[in-house]
Amino acid sequence: MASVLIIDDHPIVLQGCRRILQDAGVETILEARDLVGGYRLYRRHRPDAVIVDLELHARGLGGLSLIQRIHAHDPRTRILVFSMHSDPAIVARSLEAGALGYVNKDTSSEELLRAFEQVMAGTPYLASDLAMKVALARTGLRRNPLDGLTPRQLQTLSLLAKGKPYGEIAAELSLSYKTVANTCSELKHKLAAKNLPDLVRIAVQLVAEAP
Predict the structure, then answer these.
(1) Is residue 86 a part of any domain in this protein?
(2) Is-above-0.70 flag for pTM?
(3) What is the overall mean pLDDT for the chain?
(4) Do 102 and 163 share a domain, yes or no?
């Protein structure tokens, strides 16, 4: 039977996912609560599938970078995102990073299992409402200011929205202060922010407007 790695920093989510997969007959289930531990377990055990949250320990959308690393190491690994985010731009970025499926955390256990089984079969999975939003975003019928941002820029923007200063962002993302400052300069340019306070205002607004 398939082996699965679940990466999420919420114990209740880990417990719920484990129970659902065990009831479905999955025997080998690994768990990690952070990006580093998750990637180490992945490299050590090479699971057939990975179920990953995008936001771990307030590190913004760090799960995107993890998806990219796993996909780059072995594109055959089935990756299913299990996240609270339903913004079509974030969903699209997850799929572009290498995820094969995307499920919201407010979904039913039946849908989560259906998504897992479909992804394990090598078939992409998106709920119908998410699929429509992503399709509209990709065709340009619904433009989103988050489109075109890199995973690091998305992480930084998310932490700025939480009121984090450069130093704390650097510590949480394991980056240098200078790298964070450069990333914020890039964000100012992409989001047409006049200065840092304006960028923080835009970040808070974008997070608040996310579905």
Answers:
(1) yes
(2) no
(3) 86
(4) no
